[in-house]
């Protein structure tokens, strides 16, 4: 059973989300919150598997709430935004969200996303993350972190990280680097493990923030 806390400042939105999720045999909405502070409190109270989080709320917004929930390892967070190219979405990914959905996502896709996050997968694709980073980090490259964190990687692993950050799938990376897809998958796993990252999306963000990949690079 996937236990979910819903967070949105609009009651009508919460009602709709609850109807969709509670209709599934393997998903249960255990509580709701209308702002970021309540979201953190509910996560501490229930220790849910997934928090479905609106990012734009008065007071403590969803980004800060995500940072607190992930920082305390209370739950995985899936954020909801109105637009796919949204600086709130990028901030939420940086704060540790497993991905984001648009608020008009079809019900079946919403349920699938909640299940995927519960199973440890990232919902937003690396290519979408790349578009976000290209738009909001700008031409400077956004070197926000010391690139010495990448020194634990081999040259091959660093190349895999670069291609991942460019939004390529494992199959596309395999073709570009003349490797098998299984080998690429192994390298990606080692990159995530060495850099202590949760998923590919976090790897993309790190690659940009260390300047390994620049906005607009192909």
From TrEMBL:
Keywords carried by this UniProt record: DNA-binding, Phosphoprotein, Transcription, Transcription regulation
Domain HTH luxR-type: 146-211
Organism per entry: Actinopolyspora saharensis
A single GO molecular function term of this UniProt record: DNA binding
Residue span(s) of domain Response regulatory: 3-118
Source species, domain of life: Bacteria
One of the protein's GO biological processes: regulation of DNA-templated transcription
A matching Pfam family: GerE
InterPro entries registered for this protein in UniProt: CheY-like_superfamily, NreC/VraR/RcsB-like_REC, Sig_transdc_resp-reg_C-effctor, Sig_transdc_resp-reg_receiver, Tscrpt_reg_LuxR_C, WalR-like
Modified residues (4-aspartylphosphate): 54
Protein name in UniProt: DNA-binding response regulator, NarL/FixJ family, contains REC and HTH domains
The UniProt record lists the keyword Nucleotide-binding: no
């Amino acid at each position: 059973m996937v236990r979910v806390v819903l967070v949105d400042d609009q009651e009508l939105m919460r009602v709709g989300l609850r109807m969709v999720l509670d209709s599934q045999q393997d998903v249960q909405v255990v509580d709701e919150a209308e702002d970021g502070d309540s979201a953190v409190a509910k996560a501490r109270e229930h220790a849910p598997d997934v928090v479905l989080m609106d990012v734009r709320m008065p007071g403590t917004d969803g980004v800060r709430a995500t940072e607190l929930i992930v920082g305390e390892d209370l739950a995985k967070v899936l954020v909801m935004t109105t637009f796919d190219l949204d600086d709130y979405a990028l901030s939420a990914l940086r704060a540790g969200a497993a991905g984001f959905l648009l608020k008009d996502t079809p019900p079946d896709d919403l349920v699938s996303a909640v299940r995927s996050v519960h199973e440890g997968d990232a919902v937003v694709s690396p290519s979408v993350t790349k578009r976000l980073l290209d738009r909001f980090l700008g031409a400077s490259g956004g070197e926000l972190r010391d690139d010495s964190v990448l020194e634990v990687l081999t040259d091959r692993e660093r190349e895999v990280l670069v291609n991942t950050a460019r939004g390529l799938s494992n199959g596309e990376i395999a073709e570009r680097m003349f490797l098998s897809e299984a080998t690429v998958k192994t390298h990606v796993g080692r990159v995530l493990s060495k850099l202590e990252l949760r998923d590919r999306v976090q790897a993309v963000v790190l690659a940009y923030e260390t300047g390994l990949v620049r906005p607009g690079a192909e």
